[in-house]
């Protein structure tokens, strides 16, 4: 009974914290079952927000201590309503030089809010599609990591810039 309660508790706590966030426009996660396969793509369908304002875009990752790398490489692809596609290969730090995992969280799960783009204006009306997949490689190896351990959730967030 207690084991099945943990995901429900985590969901409830996440809901409480995100529902009180006035800057949040879009914030959705996809769960990674067991290991993140190199061909598995997290896909987010986004209805264009207000086209008169600029927004900041983030990739969000949740990971456990099973994540054994200091960084992560991601391929992020954004398709606009009229078909134009932007594709970026991005690298983010996931641990400090001592190997301590970065991110926030008091439990064994760390949450990382990673900058993707800032001051983006959604000029085209309609639906945007964002796809995220990992592109990890181990040093000295040609082939990529097929199954990446330690990533539990992949998310995408759009928020209003903070007022200073």
Automatic annotation (TrEMBL):
This is Gliding motility lipoprotein GldH. Keywords: Lipoprotein, Signal. Residues 1-19 form the signal peptide. NCBIfam families: GldH_lipo. InterPro entries: Motility-assoc_lipoprot_GldH. The keyword Ribonucleoprotein does not apply.
């Amino acid at each position: 009974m207690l084991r099945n309660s943990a995901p429900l508790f985590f969901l409830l706590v996440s809901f409480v914290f995100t529902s009180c966030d006035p800057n949040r426009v879009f914030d959705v996660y996809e769960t990674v079952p067991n290991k993140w396969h190199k061909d598995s793509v997290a896909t987010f369908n986004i209805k264009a927000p207000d086209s008169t304002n600029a927004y900041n875009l983030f990739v969000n990752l949740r990971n456990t201590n099973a994540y054994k790398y200091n960084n992560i490489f991601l391929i992020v692809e954004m398709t606009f309503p009229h078909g134009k596609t932007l594709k970026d290969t991005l690298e983010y730090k996931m641990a400090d030089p001592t190997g301590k995992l970065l991110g926030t969280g008091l439990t064994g799960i760390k949450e990382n809010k990673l900058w993707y783009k800032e001051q983006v204006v959604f000029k085209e009306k309609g639906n945007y599609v964002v796809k995220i997949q990992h592109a990890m490689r181990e040093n000295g190896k040609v082939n990529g990591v097929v199954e990446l351990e330690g990533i539990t959730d992949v998310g995408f967030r759009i928020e209003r810039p903070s007022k200073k």
